[in-house]
Amino acid sequence: MTLEQLAAIVARRATGEGEASYTRTLLAKGVAKCAQKLGEEAVETALAAVGADTKAVISETADLLYHLVVLLQARGVPLEDVYAELARRTRQSGLEEKASRPG
Ligand SMILES: N=c1c2ncn([C@@H]3O[C@H](COP(=O)(O)OP(=O)(O)OP(=O)(O)O)[C@@H](O)[C@H]3O)c2ncn1[C@@H]1O[C@H](COP(=O)(O)O)[C@@H](O)[C@H]1O
C-alpha cells in the first residue's frame, strides 16, 4: 500500500456514503481532532523508536502515516503538493552539494 493509495481511500471515505468508517468519523470531528490524533501518533512513534521492539516502530509509523494522510485530507492539502515541496528541496540540496564540491 502506497501513500497515494491510502490517500485515495481516505478521500473516498470523506465523500462517500455508506457503512460506518473510522476515517469518516474522525474527519467529521474536524481538523483540530485530526491534528490531535497526529500528535499522539507522533509521540507514540518517537517512543517506539527509542525502544527495542522493531515491530512496534513499524506499527506506530503506519498509524502515524495514516493519521498524516487524514489530516492532509481534513485540511484539503493534496499529497502531490507535499511531494512537490520535497522535490523542490531535493533540487536545492543538489545544487548546494555541487556548489560545495571542490573543483
Ligand atoms: N491505516 C489505517 C489505520 N491506521 C490506524 N487506524 C485506526 O486508528 C485508530 C487509532 O487508534 P486509537 O486507539 O489511537 O484511537 P481511538 O481510541 O480508537 O480513537 P480516539 O477516540 O482517540 O479518536 C484505530 O481505531 C485504528 O483502527 C486506521 N484506520 C484506517 N486505516 C486505513 O483507512 C482505510 C479506511 O478505514 P475505515 O475508515 O475504518 O473504513 C482502511 O482500509 C485502512 O487502509
TrEMBL record:
Domain of life of the source: Bacteria
Gene3D superfamilies xref list: MazG-like
UniProt keyword annotations, A-Z: Amino-acid biosynthesis, ATP-binding, Cytoplasm, Histidine biosynthesis, Hydrolase, Nucleotide-binding
Family annotation (SUPFAM superfamilies): all-alpha NTP pyrophosphatases (SSF101386)
Subcellular location: Cytoplasm
Enzyme class: hydrolase
Reaction catalyzed: 1-(5-phospho-beta-D-ribosyl)-ATP + H2O = 1-(5-phospho-beta-D-ribosyl)-5'-AMP + diphosphate + H(+)
GO biological process, any: L-histidine biosynthetic process
GO MF term list: ATP binding; phosphoribosyl-ATP diphosphatase activity
EC number: 3.6.1.31
Pathway(s) it belongs to: Amino-acid biosynthesis; L-histidine biosynthesis; L-histidine from 5-phospho-alpha-D-ribose 1-diphosphate: step 2/9
GO cellular component: cytoplasm
Record PANTHER family: HISTIDINE BIOSYNTHESIS BIFUNCTIONAL PROTEIN, HISTIDINE BIOSYNTHESIS BIFUNCTIONAL PROTEIN HISIE
Protein family membership: Belongs to the PRA-PH family.
Protein's name in the database: Phosphoribosyl-ATP pyrophosphatase
Native species: Ancylobacter tetraedralis
Native organism taxonomy: Bacteria, Pseudomonadati, Pseudomonadota, Alphaproteobacteria, Hyphomicrobiales
